[in-house]
Amino acid sequence: MHKSILVVAAHPDDEALGCGGTIARLSQEGAAVHVAFLADGVTSRAGEAAADQGGLRARRAAAGNACEILGARTLYFGDFPDNRLDTVALLSLVQTIEELIAKFRPDVLLTHHAGDLNVDHRLIHQAAVTACRPQVGSTVRTLLAFEVPSSTEWQPPGSAPVFAPNWFIDISTSLSRKLAALDAYAVEMRAWPHPRSRQGVEHLARWRGATVGVDAAEAFMLARRLF
Amino acid sequence: MHKSILVVAAHPDDEALGCGGTIARLSQEGAAVHVAFLADGVTSRAGEAAADQGGLRARRAAAGNACEILGARTLYFGDFPDNRLDTVALLSLVQTIEELIAKFRPDVLLTHHAGDLNVDHRLIHQAAVTACRPQVGSTVRTLLAFEVPSSTEWQPPGSAPVFAPNWFIDISTSLSRKLAALDAYAVEMRAWPHPRSRQGVEHLARWRGATVGVDAAEAFMLARRLF
Amino acid sequence: MHKSILVVAAHPDDEALGCGGTIARLSQEGAAVHVAFLADGVTSRAGEAAADQGGLRARRAAAGNACEILGARTLYFGDFPDNRLDTVALLSLVQTIEELIAKFRPDVLLTHHAGDLNVDHRLIHQAAVTACRPQVGSTVRTLLAFEVPSSTEWQPPGSAPVFAPNWFIDISTSLSRKLAALDAYAVEMRAWPHPRSRQGVEHLARWRGATVGVDAAEAFMLARRLF
Amino acid sequence: MHKSILVVAAHPDDEALGCGGTIARLSQEGAAVHVAFLADGVTSRAGEAAADQGGLRARRAAAGNACEILGARTLYFGDFPDNRLDTVALLSLVQTIEELIAKFRPDVLLTHHAGDLNVDHRLIHQAAVTACRPQVGSTVRTLLAFEVPSSTEWQPPGSAPVFAPNWFIDISTSLSRKLAALDAYAVEMRAWPHPRSRQGVEHLARWRGATVGVDAAEAFMLARRLF
Amino acid sequence: MHKSILVVAAHPDDEALGCGGTIARLSQEGAAVHVAFLADGVTSRAGEAAADQGGLRARRAAAGNACEILGARTLYFGDFPDNRLDTVALLSLVQTIEELIAKFRPDVLLTHHAGDLNVDHRLIHQAAVTACRPQVGSTVRTLLAFEVPSSTEWQPPGSAPVFAPNWFIDISTSLSRKLAALDAYAVEMRAWPHPRSRQGVEHLARWRGATVGVDAAEAFMLARRLF
Amino acid sequence: MHKSILVVAAHPDDEALGCGGTIARLSQEGAAVHVAFLADGVTSRAGEAAADQGGLRARRAAAGNACEILGARTLYFGDFPDNRLDTVALLSLVQTIEELIAKFRPDVLLTHHAGDLNVDHRLIHQAAVTACRPQVGSTVRTLLAFEVPSSTEWQPPGSAPVFAPNWFIDISTSLSRKLAALDAYAVEMRAWPHPRSRQGVEHLARWRGATVGVDAAEAFMLARRLF
Question: Torsion angle, CA of A201/A207/A212/A216, rounded to 10 degrees?
């Protein structure tokens, strides 16, 4: 149904954790899915002074493998500083996303939730909703926020907007590809009972599925839908 | 796109005020729209003891005219007591809506907002979301709450859930039919600057349109979307 | 640690769905757990005029079995009308809970969430928090609201207060007893992928566990804690 | 400044607890303050079948004394059932308040908060905001909700709308009359450290005062202000 | 009624969009209205390295014309970087506003809403409420947040605090001056159906008016009122 | 009961204002309480260029005296810039708190509220909840946010998350030590009727106490509790 979908994520693995099943399903159904990572996902661990070039290459290679499994058509890597997006003007993030929108002309944009524990996620949400201003000529008709295990559910209620999903996408036929994509990010994954473990991700997908009567689902909060 | 749409409203005129443009647009696009009014919309004004039969007939006739203008296929009139739905077990409302869903098998259900000033609106919202439990086999894929001028915007913030729309339906081509349907409810309409005046309704539709870059729109809050 | 715990639920099976693992764990750790069901859990299905006495007996027997598995010490059955608590004065519910508190002198009270889809759940929450007014001499030091699959997660955001848990109880060692208790309620349980299926309940428990780094957990919202 | 003020309270003593200092100050500044109690404040304690006529007379006498101390001009006693307003159609409450508004033509209306623990308070709030629909010709320009010790602060967050005040009235010069009015309700008052004790009321007034830099204040949530 | 009013806005045109009718009405009624723009409103479009001096002069000239039409007495131009206030310490904004308050000693302060889409608006709100701490000696008795078309209504619900107005100012007699002031900002205005078009602004003003039964209004959220 | 408690505050005096009674009570009951101040609490007043070394020493000496009175075992002084934490990457704050957690292995962590007026408080809350991710091996079982007079209650509702307490600690026996600790911060304290006056602090403690039926209490919002 959808022609062009843009996923705007902070770090490689967020796209698979947040909406990997949706990417896989919609790609298979014929949509062109473009995935953009704005932060490099490595720098902050290697210290401020020197980025770990090996780590960077490895993580980008993992992203390539994951997105190939999911069927994404395009990958984009920004180089904003990992876990330090609050040191960058929000406007820079907005302009980057605006350029991606101009290039891919998506009708659906998927991004982080406003209230995640991770500061990069929160700022990318802010930037994405700003870039998606519903002006005349805007291509984005559906703007959704996904949940990322080990960030969304870790934000205490009362500290930030709560993730309360109202949009559910059936991923019964694509959950296996989501999990395979996460295998590509083995370095980022953790052992059970961590929420960012293979089992943790599957339990969440099953619970979101049961919520709406299907075998597996990904859950989203709708930011805006134009019809 | 949508095959079958069920509108669950408290009183005749709520459907036109809340989603008349949407009914008209989607009917014209081929959807079968069914409109159900749960309260009789007259009793409370005529006193508790005796319903005003003439008023009841007149209001139902107006509803017939309005829905013909809008292109609705079916009308249903419940006889729950007007402005006194809080004297009825919520379960009775739920069961009535469940029967309507079983009959019409809608994929979209449109109903009142949870936080309207009018108590009938609030209770019908509660009943409708209960009737739309997303169980296996449920036909309803999209559940939306509309706003009704002179009820939704009159609820003070802090008193009930705020109407903060995230779903906008372009009614540029059907606003005129919405206004014509409201003309059929002349008895219920008020003179400007009342929000339930012809001009009030148009200003709101234009503002909701401008919000998303179209000439006129109706705004909704998404309760749940299954995809 | 806790000496006396009172669970105030609407219907038999809510206690097992909502906090069965907690009952089982704390019972084993020495607490005296008392479970009260305020609605009979049967009437509304059999019609208003005549309660289905056989169904009533069967459900109470199931509750007896379930609570024996969980280790609860006392069962109390109220006879408020099932799914029709909104036809009863809230004060009657409050007074019933006050009597239970006076009798069992609990230091912990577990009850439904304020925003469940089920109207009985919502009203019992209101009644319970009223009965637990933190006056001089009140025994209740901890007041928690649990989530019930097929009710809590089915309430759309924007319709009622969202369940956003901040209190997690590790039930890794008692999940099996929770599931066994639910087996006792076979009539109430559903097939996967319904949230009130054995698998649905387990996926939720695993996900709540992963959220806080344990094998299984039950999640609660704190209403009030006195220390 | 204000010409006519209507206080709509559930029970005698709520007016003094919630806005006694404001009544006293504005009365002295020349406003005509009218106080309406909708519930009789006695019935529920004496049982459903028979109202305690002696208790009723005593409580109305106390209200008379309190309001004389505060300088209120008019008292109105409704006879809706105490602590059982949820057994009455909300419309009946609305119509009663509408009649009071038509009679006194207030420019300011003060009433309970939407989220109090007491069910009568919550329903009177709903009825009052309904009666104050801002239609052409409405006299009410300012609609405020007050807090009542032992009800407002006893509602757990997450159960109902939170009282978060944004309107503060300096009662430095009238706190003594507020406390004297509460002395008239000796039967309703409790010993420290109950929030409905003389000291509890004063500590709250001092804290609300300190919040805005005055010796004592009453705090309100604004529902609506027309200017 | 009010003696001195301070408007704290991010960019020239925000004051006219947000509260131009109020400025015009209150100026005519004798208040001294002072308008402060904290960001230069131009830099970010011309790039970081070099501000467009011509654009800056033109926008300040437009502001001068607009505020003359509205009857504002004083204009103040800060030079914080446009659309990049998140690169400045909030404290700097606070101190600038504190100096303005010390200079003009306003009893009313009007500023942006906490939840606007524009990051400058959000930060100025934070700075303004900080500068208005209600300490002994503070002159500000009324603190209000206005809405700015193309920013306030473009923030998705769930992303930031929702604008839910509770304070309405009748601008029936000053709407024409508001629109004339916006004509002075022709460069900033857009064609219908953009919300920042002449028609968009008028539809909103009419709808806010109808909400409270007048021909046109501006709507605000009360932050704090001292009385 | 608790073995190790870590208080993470912005500035010296926040610990005494926010949870001084709790520190005193729990220290006396045998807990090891560690207090960390992340900002130096002086710089912003002396200008950006040069920190006032004398003021810094004096404030640290006051903190030493206060924490000795309260019975805290360890003091830690960070040197993040006072009232300018928004110029620092949040990650730096997170890492500092993580180091403190690694060192002291607290089971309880007390910190600022998410919605305080003071920007340093808000950012420390964000950093603390991030540092307390409930991973396998995390020692923190209870994460609470306290209120600080002259910051928490000064944030207007609608601007940030509201402080709505659900956790109350009886400080009847330790209020005198809290007040004595505040005497050590004489330079920071203000005269009545400022909320950060001795009397203001006591009125709040008494009101929080009355709320739960004790002579004095400190109130908290629970972020997360693992059991």
Answer: 40
Find chain A residues with C-beta within 8 A of E195's C-beta. Answer: none
pLDDT digit string, tens, across residues D188-214: 999 999 999 999 999 999 999 999 999
Contact B226 A136 (CB under 8 A): no
Dihedral sign for Cα D159, D164, D165, D166, please: negative
Q: Are B62 and B184 in contact (CB under 8 A)?
A: yes
Nearest to B222 by CA among B149, B167, B153: B167
Where are the alpha helices (H) located in chain E, listed in sequence order? 14-28, 43-46, 53-70, 90-104, 119-131, 175-184, 198-211
Largest CA distance in chain E: 50
Task: Quote the CA–CA distance of A138 and D120 in Å, as a whole number.
Answer: 49
Distance of alpha carbon F141 from alpha carbon C206, whole angstroms: 19
Q: Where are the alpha helices (DSSP H) in F148-197?
A: 175-184
Q: Which residues of A touch C162 (CB under 8 A)?
A: 162, 164
Two structure tokens written together for D27: 């009365």
Mean of the per-residue pLDDT values of chain A = 95
pLDDT in tens, C67-79: 999 999 999 999 9
Among E113, E166, E203, E221, the residue to mutate for chain B (most B Cβ within 10 A): E203
CB-CB: which of A134, A211, A222 is closest to B222?
Answer: A222
* CB-CB contact of F115 with F155 (8 Å): yes
**Tokens read off for C70:** 């969980």
β-bridge partners, E39: E80
Helix axes D14-28, D53-70, angle to 10 degrees: 30
Question: How many angstroms separate the CA atoms of A175 and A169, rounded?
Answer: 11
Pairing of strands C167-170, C142-146: unpaired
Half-sphere exposure of D92 (CA within 13 A, CB side): 15
CB-based contact D116:D82 (threshold 8 Å): no
Burial status of residue C98 (CB atoms within 10 A of its CB: 0-12, 13-18, 19 or more): middle
Residues A117, A155: contact at Cβ < 8 Å?
Answer: yes
Helix (H, G, I), strand (E, B) or coil at A91: helix
Report ipTM for this prediction.
Answer: 0.95
Q: Using one digit for the tens of pLDDT, what is the confidence trace for A43-102?
A: 655 554 455 788 899 999 999 999 999 999 999 999 999 999 999 999 999 999 999 999
CA-nearest of F37, F151, F19, F130 to F85 is F37
Return the residue matching tokens 């449920």. B138
Distance CA D123, CA D144 (A): 15
CB pairs under 8 A between B and C: 41
Residues E97-116 have pLDDT tens digits of 999 999 999 999 999 999 99
DSSP chain B: --SEEEEEESSTTHHHHHHHHHHHHHHHTT-EEEEEEEE-SSHHHH-SS---HHHHHHHHHHHHHHHHHHT-SEEEEEEEPTT-GGGS-HHHHHHHHHHHHHHH--SEEEE--TT-SSHHHHHHHHHHHHHT---TT----EEEEE--TTTSTTSPBTTB------EEEE-TTTHHHHHHHHHHTTTT---TTSTTSHHHHHHHHHHHHHHTTSS-EEEEEEEEEE-
How close, in Å, is residue A135 to chain E by CA atoms? 7
